[in-house]
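Running this now, will post back.
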Amino acid sequence: MVFQITAFYALPLALIGLVLWFRVTIMRSNLNVSIGERGDQNLLLSIRQHGNFIEWVPLMLVLMMIAEGNGAGAWVHISGAFIVIGRLAHPFGLKIDNASHPLRYVGNISSLIALLNVMICIVITSAKL
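Update: finished.
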């Protein structure tokens, strides 16, 4: 089975993940830090931005594949669009000194909408409702 809809969103998400990974790697190299953040707040922030991405995206892509495989069709686009928007916005809103940055809310809410939508798709297509 070909997962065209999921693949459409997997590529931009992979690029976002790669950028976030490069930021951590470059900072680690510049600071000569192999593990942890050694108290550097900027490195900690980059680690969490990348970590949050990794906490969300693999699960979402798997769930999107399940929903698409079950025949959810165009509904999967809703989750794909929202997870891309959320994962683009969230790193810019994740701030050490501002837990209520608007882009953090955009990232979190978009990701939650994406998750809820794909979960509903799976329930409906699995139950053949």
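Helices lie at 4-31, 41-69, 75-93, 102-127. More later if anyone needs it.
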